[in-house]
């Protein structure tokens, strides 16, 4: 048996000058010739990378805001086109339309794991396999020498833990690294029931994955399983166990647990496709002129492809429980708003990094004049952050409101003020 006290540790040391440039020593840094060579060699590459990052971030801002505008228009179109239908009847006249219904989800049959023969009367069965393994932890200590240089010491520590992911011990870097088994004999898996109904409708695979509430499956009653009888498997705490002693796990031991999703009442907002459903794309409907109350300018907006395709404009909602269609539209809008803001934050960060790289050559050039070096370092960070935020504010403001002028023409008057706010931050 192995335990955490068996874990080992090792270290390696490297030196780094506190004022180095590109890994050179402090003496080299003070050489004007070295600085000039570094500046000439790296400037083109750094500028190209910085420009690429900045341009990419601006493009992401543009398409992200365009997608957000399309999302608003698509949801607005869906709220006007939606048809509330009964779950027990499939009406041919609603074919291809956006429909809303509520009803009880029913599992037609059982879902079974063929590997171990575990069955459940649910819509989904998940097998979770964990292996007891060595894991490497890396820490770093930095110590300063009297001459101003630094010693960086990496320390490697090893602990044992349960992991659903196989840990490749061949990548361990310690002096005496531990070893894990070369692979996991069984993998985690999710199995879906193919026939799940809500009244007369059959749910598609994406919908089945969202149905029901999770429950643990206890395998204690499977004592007659062939692999239990021959000793390959043990049963402990309602789970299968592969190993000598569940109370004292060793590296390579497995524990296999199950969970199921039991169906209940659901609410659906999607396009009717035969006796099933598919995503409703408000973008396509508006572009095809399905809603006359939206003018051609909106249709032109919806015709522009974005980096995320129709992700923001598709309506394919399933919620557990009886949820009103108004609440489902609100939830769909909120979910996509979180994605929009995530992309805004990421693009702004990349833009700031790109601007920092663009001014990096000036840092090297001005470092030839020591009094200006520290002042420029402070100004570079300040200006890059301000410029990045300013450009992000301007682009987000424009794209957030200008496309929406197609829905509300008075909003265009907000852009000059928002642009001035962005310039003020700069």
First-last Cα distance: 62 Å
The number of distinct β-strands equals 19
Mean pLDDT: 76
- What share of the residues does DSSP label as strand, in percent? 25-35%
Q: If you compute it from the alpha carbons, what radius of gyration comes out, rounded to the nearest whole angstrom?
A: 30 Å
SSE order, as H and E?
EHHEEEEEEEEEHEHEEEEEEHHEEHHHH
What is the overall number of helices? 10
What's the main sheet like?
A: 8 strands, antiparallel
- Quaternary state, please? single chain
Q: Uncertain runs with pLDDT below 50, 5 residues or more?
A: 1-7, 10-29, 289-299, 305-309, 401-426
What would you call the shape? flat
Structural class: alpha+beta
Task: Tell me roughly what share of residues is in helical segments.
Answer: 25-40%
List the helices and strands and how they pair.
Elements: E1 9-17, H1 26-29, H2 32-81, E2 83-84, E3 98-107, E4 111-113, E5 118-120, E6 124-144, E7 149-163, E8 189-192, E9 196-198, E10 201-202, H3 205-208, E11 213-217, H4 226-229, E12 234-236, E13 239-242, E14 254-262, E15 265-273, E16 276-278, E17 280-281, H5 282-287, H6 296-302, E18 314-315, E19 317-320, H7 325-358, H8 360-366, H9 370-401, H10 414-425
Parallel strand pairs: 2-3
Antiparallel strand pairs: 1-7, 3-9, 3-15, 4-5, 6-7, 6-8, 6-14, 9-10, 11-14, 12-13, 13-14, 15-16, 15-19, 17-18
